[in-house]
Design brief:
There is one protein chain. The protein is about 30% helix and about 30% strand. The chain has two domains: about 220 residues, Rossmann fold (3-Layer(aba) Sandwich); about 60 residues, 2-Layer Sandwich (Alpha-Beta Plaits), CATH 3.30.70. The longest helix is centred in the middle third of the chain and has 16 residues. It has about 300 residues and is of the alpha/beta class. α6 links the parallel β8 and β9. The radius of gyration is 21 Å and the shape is elongated. The chain has a six-stranded mixed beta sheet, sandwiched between helices. Strands 1, 2, 3, 5 and 6 form a five-stranded antiparallel beta sheet that branches. A four-stranded antiparallel beta sheet has the order 13-14-12-15.
Length: about 300
């Protein structure tokens, strides 16, 4: 069964198209990573899935029920870790969770269960969170998301800002939640290396567009070519690309066209005959950040 399905999901902020026609599929019991560089639209997707902002176009189904038609019912089975979640540093980890449990109408036994799920010991739970490492704080945030005993966790950048040790703590915790407890997870990340030991499937999001969706093994076998274009004037370039059949997205003064090296001639001809001055054409694979097991330029890389 699909826990998350989106159909032509789109979101614009003024003239900026943050998310464009996404068809996501997340199966029950799997961990799925939405991967992409900063500004790719990952947080916007998560905010729409959680019902925090409405889509400009398209639909979202959770367990086959539309967010719009089903009211809050589909979200009752979702736990979330929003970007930048904070804690009371002078209170212990357990006290932080007890406050959240009181506000949410949950029991103290839910606090104990959540702490066990993220492998925080009784000794750690009784320490002030101001003494926690960044990795421990993130695990406590996961425990907060688990208080309602959700079937689906939606996590925005759970490994962002962590060192390798902290990221490993979170990865192992997330892997346990799917393998041992059977929960579904939808998370975002800028680095494949941070999630490749945790997730079964990935979606590659760049410029608000879904370039790939499938298993990790399929991703490593699939070329995802992009052509980085620097040309002027940018307004003319956007008009020419927008009037063609080529898929593309813009990042500042740069354009990324969804063709490989073999399409360089077509793009160059389109721009030059249309009156644009081409400054650079550079074949890329994806824009995932350095530190991933997929290089940001020039093909695949191995693990570090």
């Amino acid at each position: 069964m699909m826990v998350i399905e989106t159909f032509q999901l789109s979101r614009s902020f003024g003239k900026v198209r943050a998310v464009q026609r996404l068809d996501l599929r997340v199966e029950e019991g799997e961990a799925y990573a939405c991967l992409g560089p900063h500004g790719a639209g990952k947080t916007t997707v998560i905010r729409m899935i959680l019902g925090l902002i409405p889509p400009t176009e398209g639909r979202i189904l959770l367990w086959g029920k539309s967010l719009g038609e089903g009211g809050k019912e589909p979200l009752s089975k979702v736990g979330a870790l929003p970007e930048g979640a904070s804690l009371f540093p002078h209170l212990t980890g357990k006290e932080n969770l007890e406050i959240l449990a009181y506000l949410g109408g949950w029991e103290l036994q839910d606090v104990e269960r959540a702490l066990r799920s993220v492998f925080l010991t009784e000794r750690d739970a009784e320490r002030p969170t101001g003494e926690y490492s960044v990795g421990m704080k993130r695990r406590l945030g996961l425990a907060a998301a688990l208080l309602s005993d959700p079937e689906l966790l939606v996590l925005d950048g759970p490994c962002d800002g962590l060192d390798s040790a902290g990221a490993l703590e979170v990865q192992e915790t997330l892997a346990s939640l799917t393998r041992r407890e059977g929960r579904s997870i939808f998370l975002s990340s800028r680095r494949l290396l941070e999630v490749e030991k945790t997730v079964q499937r990935v979606g590659i999001l760049e410029g608000g567009r879904l370039l790939f969706q499938g298993t990790l093994q399929e991703f490593r076998r699939t070329p995802l070519p992009l052509l980085e274009v620097e040309a002027s004037p940018p307004e003319r370039v956007e008009a020419l690309l927008g009037g063609s059949s080529l898929g593309y997205f813009r990042s500042g003064e740069l354009f990324f066209v969804e063709v490989g090296e073999e399409g360089m001639g077509e793009v160059h001809s389109l721009l030059t005959t249309g009156g644009a001055k081409v400054l650079r054409l550079l074949p890329r694979r994806t824009l995932l950040e350095e530190g991933s097991s997929v290089k940001t330029e020039g093909g695949r890389g191995g693990g570090r």
